[in-house]
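On clarity, I found the account of how folds are encoded harder to follow than it need be. What matters is that the chain and its backbone geometry are given together, residue for residue. The format is easy to grasp once an entry is in front of the reader. For illustration, here is how one protein appears when written out as sequence plus structure tokens.
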Amino acid sequence: GMAVTYLAPLALLFSGDRVALGSGLAAWLLMTLAYLPALRFYGQSLAWGPTLPLVACFYLAATLDSAVRFWMGHGGEWKGRAQATRTG
């Protein structure tokens, strides 16, 4: 779902179709505008707004990595300490 939401609009920019290009640009603009309040709240530059698809890619990768580690029985790790591992 995240790939469709955040990456598909960028893929449309390279489709070569004018309608798809317009749709991709509109979706990217709208997601950028939706991201601005969070950037403002956290005191970040609004120039980060258009990078939301890249931020979403990082978040997606971190989520998938966490899921793989969980299913491998490693649990969460932070600063060399491990959270309870999966048993059974």
